[in-house]
Amino acid sequence: MNSLRLRILFPLWLFGFLPAMGATRMMGQPLDWFFGLTGILLGGGVFLAAYLISGWLLKPTTAVMKGTTAVLRGVPPDAQSAEWLPSDFWKLRCDINMIFAKQRQALNAAEQHACQTAQRLLNAERLLREAFTALQGLFAASDEGVLVVDAQGSIIASNAKLDDFLGKPVEEVAGRDASRLLNALMERFQEKAAISVWIEKTAASLEGQDEMPPLMTSDGRVFSLRSSPMRTDVGEVIGRIWIVKDRSEMRVLENQLRESQKMGTIGQLAGGIAHDFNNLLTAIRGNLTLAELTPASNQAGVRDKLQNANHATTRAAELVKSLLGYSRRSTGTSIRKTTNLKRLLADVQNLLKHSVDPRVTIQMRGGMDASYVTADATQIEQVMLNLCLNARDAMPADQGVIEIAVENVTHRMPGRANGSANSADEASDFVMLVVRDNGHGISEEHRCRIFEPFFTTRSKTTGTGLGLSTAQDIVREHGGWIEFDSEVGRGSEFRVFLPRVLNPDQVEEETPIENNSTATAAPAGNQTTILVVDDEAPVRSIAMNMLGFLGYRVLEAGDGQQALDILLRGNEKIDAVLLDIYMPKLSGRDTFKELRAVGNCVPVVVCSGFVIDPDEFMILSQGHPPPVDIMLKPYSLDGLSKALAKAVQKPQDREPSFDLTASRAQMAQAPMLVS
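Request: output the structure for the sequence above.
Response:
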């Protein structure tokens, strides 16, 4: 018997036995007999009846349980169970089997989907791990110093390049404090105030990427800073990225490209200058020939011809000086000083008039006030020449006009092209340089591309497309910008804005050229000996004749080695040396260096046909007296006499060293030649 039958059997036996005891009591019989043999027989009968009844009652329940089990297992029921179950019960078998089949199908699909999802998660994890490894490698191998800061000002990450820039690990410099690290970055630059203002504005800004122009560090290298906020998908700012990039090599390449573009400009100027120079040489030669043919009795006629030749020589010297001053190669560092832009435009006009068709009029707007900026004059001159040469190429066949002007304006600096919020809110003082022409203008399709490097509408043989790009870079480095208006068929106007210097303290003014000055004769008394060192015999002869005319005793040397033999191993007492720079065997620089190296302090006047940097000879002096003066060829009789008179002065009367500023100013002047 199973436990269920026992649970039914006991209640049935109990409910059958108790009524029997009650019926015995009602018949007046004592209960003792019930516990005798009669009672035992009666209990056994009741138990048997209960056993039979419980078995009968359990058959349907057992049949239902077995049938349900068979249905769930999908097997046919046995015949005994089938007798106690209705026929409709087995119709459920198909429905239940169908439900189970669908459940099994759904379970299999879910299991398959789970397997696919697990595989995708594994692939995603692998890709994420690979991407993180790649990003980590790029972050570590980047040539830019990268700093990642969260919204609370704590450093999240930095790379080794930033450690190299700081000179020590970020943790040692600032721990995890971003403000301390930014202060350390600021200390590495020379212009700490400008960096501090930029960092403060950028850190408070929620705009897009902002970049600071390249600045020089304390060790002479050039770095740039840029920063941009980190945002979530909904635009919430969660931090900021700071990037430090070494621009030293890029700056060298930019300077080389700028010099290359400058040489291209010189190439465009050279044709017209050569034409004018040949005209001047024709005038010189013709007047000298006429002077030779004029009778000796006609001294006034001879003098007139010589003055005409002298005037043409002066113009030729001015022309060469202008070209040399513009073509002078820079040292790679922009030399900025207070510059008079009105005088600079006059130099630009002087260069242009030799390179423009005579039918094109170049005019400067009259009544312009003096305007001063802090700038590299050569670079600003390059900008204006580029704009003017572009205007020249856009001129009509005749009646072309190029107008150059300068004007002091009050203007609000436009916002940066990248959308930064650092545009100026208040108007400031600027100098506006204007180049206006009546050429063919710029078409709409080209206006947005004219400042792109290497973009040009001219033929490949006449243009490189670097002029306007270089001009824009130069102006931006000077804190300004370029605007332009153009109308097809009517011409263009370009406006260059540069920050104005309101009260210039020190401005290098040009010394006017004296055409008729009195030469200084040699000192009276003992005859003064001058050694002329030059490899060009005609030039050496002219210098010797001039010095002889001034009353000096003159010796000559054809190169630096001969000069050293005379100065160091000869018996002649030399009072001063007129030393050329570019010579065979031993150059003037090496000659001067060897003289000072052995302690020979003879006064030296340096002369050359090229522009010379006075600082170079301060180094070559090695602590001894530098050159007394530096002159550019062709030199005048007056200039030569003054330089030699200064050289032969007594040491106590002579200035201890030449003025570098004055020498640089002299290098910018146009020397002149007198026959």
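The radius of gyration is 52 Å.
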